[in-house]
Amino acid sequence: MKIGVISDLHFDRDTKRTFDDYVKVLSAEVSRRDVTLLLVAGDMSNDYELSYRFIVALKHQLNMDVLFVPGNHDYWQSEDELNTLAVHDYFKQLPECLIERPYIINDQWAVVGHSGWYNYSYADTRFDEAKLAAGKFKGSTWQDKLYIDWKAPDKIVSRAFAETVRRDIEQMGDRHIILMTHMVTDKKFTVPLPHRIFDFYNAYIGTSDFDDIYNKYAVKYSIMGHVHFRKTLVERGITYICACLGYTRQWRSDDLQQEVANALYVIEI
Ligand SMILES: [Fe+2]
């Protein structure tokens, strides 16, 4: 069985192409590679309803299951309507959303997923907690601080989300786990330090709260998004996959089809 993985499409940020272009091009590539299940690791757009419409459109076009976890951008709202907990509840009730709804493939395999959240553990130690909580550095602000409000500190959110994943995995018995998060759950996928600004901004890339999950459970694949890398790494029997399409300015070409073909990763189980 072939499972397609992609992340961080950010189709609404592309001024040249439409929603339908993205549905068409991604669906064609998924079909071409004989994929029968598609996983999307978040950051479809900056609008939760639009992001979900995209998942539904893919599902209809492909006539297969398409599962996703929301990324931080999918939670974004303007200041006057900011209610992140309500958006989270919206996502949780969707049948294609993996949060608190693991997907059993067969007796051997299951997909468990969550947005995950950052806990500042990847930031340089010279920044204190208050500075990281404020998210301001060298004249700019980490945008989640403006458009997301969990009503709780990031560290508490990260811990709670990781515990939800642990509970989901425990329900899966002896199955091998394909774990999908939007946030990075392994330090090797952060921006290498020292870096002019990412010494600070790595705080908002990932979390250490999954370390224990990797040690204890049969995670075979770990899918992540958020950092806009396209990178795979195998370590201690776990294949870590970051299959981000990213912003058009980060592409190597101006060709959506080529970039999608390059970003889409296919797992064979
Ligand atoms: Fe992203």
From TrEMBL:
Gene3D superfamilies in the cross-refs: 3.60.21.10
UniProt protein name: Phosphohydrolase
InterPro entries: Calcineurin-like_PHP (IPR004843), Metallo-depent_PP-like (IPR029052), Pantetheine_PDE (IPR052963), Phosphoesterase_putative (IPR022302)
PANTHER family per UniProt: [ACYL-CARRIER-PROTEIN] PHOSPHODIESTERASE PPTH, PTHR36492
Coiled-coil annotated residue ranges, if any: none
Naturally occurring in which organism (per UniProt): Macrococcus equipercicus
Annotated Calcineurin-like phosphoesterase domain residues: 1-228
Pfam families: Metallophos
Domain of life, source organism: Bacteria
